[in-house]
Here is the input.
Amino acid sequence: MCSSDLFEKVGSTLLTSTPTAVEKPEFVLPGSQTAKEAAAAGNTGIEVPEDFPQVAADAPVDPAMMEVGKTLYGTCLACHGPDANGVPNLGPPLAGSEWVAGPVENLIAIQLRGMIGPIEVKGQLFKPVAPMVPLSYQTDDQIAAVLTYVRNSFGNKASPVTAEQVKVMRGEVGKPMLDPSQLLPLK
Here is the structure.
């Protein structure tokens, strides 16, 4: 069989086949059968492991980690803006956000699972037209760095995030995207 015959055969097979959505374990499509099964089983909220490491609110922030986080924030700025004040219809503000300074477990879970739906930030409702996709492909160190950067930039001041905290939350990977009602309450 010559290469042109092979391409014709493969091409005709592709044209007559029906595409099927394929979920990766770290990304559950909203409304998919997997998401429906997880919701029916009650596997929707954030599960914080008992051994979740706590970090003091006044713990020092490593400047080197902040530099790494600043670089990684490049992934975030398209939706949250270069100044973290949000982008209309894309992403809510992170600057001065009560969610950013709130329970770190929320931010880690959002990074690992993604988030869909409207969220209220600083008394204003934001309705992104697209979900925040899971970024669970990032390493524990990368997630810790970008979250530490966001929690300590743009007028925010909160405890740093550690790679150990991210590591123990990896059980969130593969669960459906979060909606704001599933976040841990602000303290």
About this structure: The CA atoms of residues 102 and 186 lie 6 Å apart.
